[in-house]
# Entry
Amino acid sequence: MRRDQHPDWCARGHRCGLGEHRAQPITLDAPGLGRVVLTRVRTEDGRESAEVRLTVALATTEPAARRQLMALTNDLDTVLSRAVYASQPPTRRAA
Ligand SMILES: [Zn+2]
# Structure
């Protein structure tokens, strides 16, 4: 693919530019509680990544907010591990 060609998933327009292609973001919204925005990105050197922006409303008191942050840290570690695992060929995953 030439550098000036958009991949089929590129949203084009204002989302694409400055050396990268960007897909239409996928938004998961829990009003008042949290939001996730997931965007596929390809940089000028051809590397692709999933950009994830997560916003979570924290409790107004401690230690509840800290418990939320600890839970988030643990869950995000699981999310990252699962995403890396999913990149393996199915034959390797079965082992
Ligand atoms: Zn593009």
Remarks:
- The chain has two helices and four strands.
- The pocket of zinc ion is lined by residues 6, 10, 12, 16, 21 (CB under 6 Å).
- The radius of gyration is 17 Å.
